[in-house]
């Protein structure tokens, strides 16, 4: 009975093979097909008429071998053209045997002729020696000693008996005649050409035992090859010699011991254990050292690894280099504990990954890691002088180099204009003390620099040329401005056994890091704010038409990347796409950032707190997720939830708050799909492989610049059509600006021939009602065009706040019962909408904001990021995110008014961290801090209950050098390609799936009256829903608040 769990097998019909003559061997007639189970396989064969592919016989044709011995090979359809391997070998051997017989069967033996001649000439020896018959050994040549048979025992003769004094007996007779060699059983070196024999070295070896036995083949071979200087053969014989091999191994052990002893006593890289030396450590250096100082050990390990260490370069075989270096380090450390540099590097990896105390001890006992106590000491070493850079920065800035340059620029600007090329400059403190940037310290430094430059130029006066040269040199000064980046760290420690005295701990600490500014313009003014808050207009912090124009341009570039990536007919334009949007500080933003620890015991004055970008971006992702994703919309094709399910990216359904990386990856796929679907609708494409019907593509002959301009123009049309198709944003900005302008001046009476003016709009309305009996009907509105609240009892009066309105209603309208505030503005738009189209257009708009946000951060483009924040400010305010709307508004106001030119420039451009120093490799400062905090928490978890302020500080102080050390190890492991951002894999399949879904529901084809998705039935085509009066009121209040906080005196 068959097992019920056995998977049933389905019979698959196979094509029946038709037999032919080539299925059998031509010679032995055996079948060349072998049955394996239910199928037939062919054995290895050779073709009679084709060239052979067998090693050593390449190109030989078997038929020609047969023809060489006089047999004609016929080629017929009923004769097989294939031979099995044994038959093919027989044919080759048959030809060789035939040729051997042909050339040797009737040929006179040259050896016999020569021996006969020798016997005739050597009669003297034959008369004195008994010619008893002896056994003859086979001839052996020097070139092939390994083919010599083992020497056989000679037969005893009546007249010759070999004794111990063999050497003495041979001294008188060994050189008398060549024929004596045969009696001594020495092989004769035979050659057909006697002249060649005389020109070559001939070696004859005899080892004769007292009993007359001659043997030991390996020993004879060894002696012969030593004499012939054939050292390669000698080395092989020595290692295979049964009696010599044990002695050789002892010698190898002794030589290796001596070599390692000298190596351990020398100045080697394995003994260098300082922080900078460990960071600069290289495994390739170990390979070079053992190759030169321990050649025997180097040969052993290279043979074990099957590599040639002497011929390897640094990246030829990273695995072999690292393995040999690790083995050498572990073995050397057994002899000398101080040779532990590589072990410290291995321990740093374990330390970085948060290995436990027990695992650290295990690895130490295995010989590849340091002990836990040594690791703690190593951490202290890494954290030593952790704040040296920031102290150096601070010391340099305390000399006020920026103020010194500002004073020099002021002296130059205030010089009288003359026609002379060289003008003397009077460096007098009394004259310069009234200057705006004058300080005694700055003036003293300037005087010293001018005097030094005058002596350098060997001139008599301090002229304008000297001043210009000093200014030029001082501008080259690397101003070490920096940012102090901090974040809180929350950590929980659960007690293993809880008691009243010992319970769980909830830790809330902060961690600070100093990152040096990469973009510094020392020529900018740093003495006064850019403008007062009274002069600041709201248009300076709102996305005006100029800002929108810049956003359209950058969005068009981003769209061009997506279109050329996924749409087949636009792929030929990929080489004209702008991969990195340039800005004025692209070079500085692509340099590697400098990072340092913070000193808790030193004070740094005049710190200006800022918010960072990554948390703000996460908040935007959360807003987008809440706006477009609902858990019950998974069965509605085209929605965010449905796209997650259909692309199998279900981890993103947890949202960016819990699964940020997963949601960001999915969001990018969904955005690219929306771009492709909308672009296909605009150009008349049926699918991603289709051809545009509404546009004409440029030909391949068009120059690159023209094609690039055409593509950008098309993409800007796309942005105007789907992202800036509504006037809601322009109307909001315009109405806010008009309201601000009205509030700045006096409100004049709107009745003709009345010249009265009022400070407040509410006073003007009261005058118009009482003096002119003007009917101020609210028409169902809650607020008028200036943001004032109407009296709900319809008396016509207006009030600046709800509180004053309510007091008025209670006092003057006793019978009035207020109802909930309703407005005609809240009623649905009577115009017929396409709510499904609205949903996906709004999704596209929000997605482009996040797309541009990510790209601006990567490129380190502070100006583009500020433009995006002006638009994001409205999103934060509209979404009810009061904290982020507050800090973003403050950020924009600081740049526009509160800060000086230098401070505003610094705030706008120095917001990024570039780890590897490459174009497009920036991240936000707070994201860098989050990455560091993750490493800290990993290490802290390994400490367990031993975590306290001392151990936490020790780890935090070592963090910077630890990261540098890990980066060095990554280079050693050839992991340089793992730079930059989290890998998202190939998402083309996901993009194509969502694009297909959107095209099937015609998401971007406007259809009036079409209902939206069931979960989003009345979706409006806008992502900002703000009342301009509320916006104006909120921004004006914050301006007044900050005017009292940030007002400061001019220097």
What labels describe this entry?
single chain, 1051 residues, mainly alpha, His-Me finger endonuclease fold, three-stranded antiparallel sheet, two-stranded antiparallel sheet, 39 helices, 13 strands, 5% strand, disordered N terminus, Znf_C2H2_type, coiled coil, DUF6589
Question: What can you see in these coordinates?
Answer:
With 1051 residues, the chain is mostly helical. Among the domains are: 21-99, His-Me finger endonuclease fold; 243-384, no CATH class; 401-476; 552-601 and 613-725 and 835-1030, no CATH class; 745-812, no CATH class. Helices cover 49% and strands 5% of the residues. The chain is built from 39 helices and 13 strands. The protein has a three-stranded antiparallel sheet with strand order 5-6-7. Strand 12 (912-914) and strand 13 form a beta hairpin. Helix 19 crosses helix 21, helix 25 packs antiparallel against helix 32 and helix 27 crosses helix 32. The N and C termini lie far apart (101 Å). Residues 137-146 have a biased composition (Polar residues). Residues 952-979 form a coiled coil. It holds the Pfam family DUF6589.
